[in-house]
């Protein structure tokens, strides 16, 4: 005798099968981490305003290294800030950095790459400072030290390691809420684009830059400030 099933039963069974096929663990349902550096090339990156990465940026031993051999002014011949080809909005960026003694660099994000209007990444993008606090003159300036939201908010507490040691940096941006983490510790937290943010910018060195901190989506850069610096394990997760 052939057994007949009710229509609701069939629908329920189909839903169960579909749910099983599409089932993912909670971790898998989240956006996955994507590597921004393959460990052996500058693929996915270019110098600001250029189509390719400058020759001073070298992929060596699993790191992106800025070679300062040909210094020209405060930057390096064949360098320039190294910028992602892609733009990012809500994200969790994670990378490791180490700086040479007396060195200065930075991680800049939300960059609007329009060189006709903005000659430098920092005219639009926000920066997490990368610095030898004791060896570089910027270390004597409040809000210019390692882990700071540069010229706006000081890192608290300070968790940076000595020059030549690797630091784990994280920048988390979600719907205007910004968090900096350095070596596993929250060091900066703020909210972008509200009245308090505008007041903060108005009291900074960026007050005359109309585009600074206004873009809600942009590129990410590793700064050429004329000094040797290394970055590795660069990855991002969309939020």
Description of the molecule:
The structure is a single chain. The chain has 239 residues and is mostly beta strands. It has a single domain, classed as Sandwich (Jelly Rolls). Helices cover 12% and strands 33% of the residues. The longest helix has 16 residues, at 7-22. The protein is globular. The termini are far apart.
What's this, in brief?
The chain has 3 helices and 15 strands. The protein is mainly beta and about 240 residues long. The chain has a single domain (about 30-239), classed as Jelly Rolls (Sandwich), CATH 2.60.120.
Relative strand content: 25-35%
According to CATH, what is the class? Mainly Beta
Tell me about the largest β-sheet. 8 strands, antiparallel
Please trace the helix and strand order, writing H or E for each element: HHEEEEEEEEEEEEEHEE
CATH superfamily: Exo-inulinase, domain 1
Runs in which pLDDT lies below 50 for 5 or more consecutive residues are: 7-11, 13-29
Question: What's the number of structural domains?
Answer: 1
Structural class: mainly beta
Oligomer: single chain
- Individual helix count: 3
Topology:
Blueprint: H1 7-22, H2 26-29, E1 34-35, E2 45-47, E3 57-60, E4 63-66, E5 71-72, E6 75-76, E7 82-84, E8 91-99, E9 104-111, E10 126-131, E11 167-174, E12 177-182, E13 185-191, H3 195-202, E14 219-222, E15 229-238
Antiparallel strand pairs: 1-15, 2-7, 3-4, 4-15, 5-6, 7-14, 8-11, 8-15, 9-10, 9-14, 11-12, 12-13
């Amino acid at each position: 005798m052939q057994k007949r099933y009710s229509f609701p039963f069939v629908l329920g069974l189909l839903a169960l099968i579909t749910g099983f096929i599409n089932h993912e663990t909670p971790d898998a349902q989240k956006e996955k981490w994507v590597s921004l550096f393959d460990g052996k090339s500058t693929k996915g990156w270019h110098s600001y305003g250029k189509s390719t990465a400058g020759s001073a940026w070298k992929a060596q031993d699993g790191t992106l290294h800025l070679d300062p051999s040909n210094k020209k002014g405060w930057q390096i011949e064949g360098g320039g800030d190294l910028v992602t080809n892609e733009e990012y909005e809500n994200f969790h960026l994670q990378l490791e950095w180490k700086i040479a003694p007396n060195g200065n660099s930075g991680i800049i994000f939300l960059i609007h790459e329009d060189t006709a209007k903005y000659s430098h990444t920092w005219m639009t993008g926000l920066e997490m400072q990368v610095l030898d606090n004791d060896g570089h003159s910027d270390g004597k300036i409040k809000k210019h030290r390692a882990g700071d939201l540069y010229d706006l908010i000081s890192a608290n507490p300070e968790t940076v390691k000595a020059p030549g040691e690797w630091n784990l940096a994280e920048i988390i941006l979600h719907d205007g809420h910004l968090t900096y983490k350095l070596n596993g510790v929250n060091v900066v937290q703020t909210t972008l684009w509200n009245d308090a943010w505008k007041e903060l910018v108005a009291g900074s060195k960026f007050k005359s830059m109309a585009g600074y901190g206004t873009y809600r989506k942009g590129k990410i850069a590793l700064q050429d400030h004329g000094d040797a610096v290394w970055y590795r394990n660069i990855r991002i997760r969309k939020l």
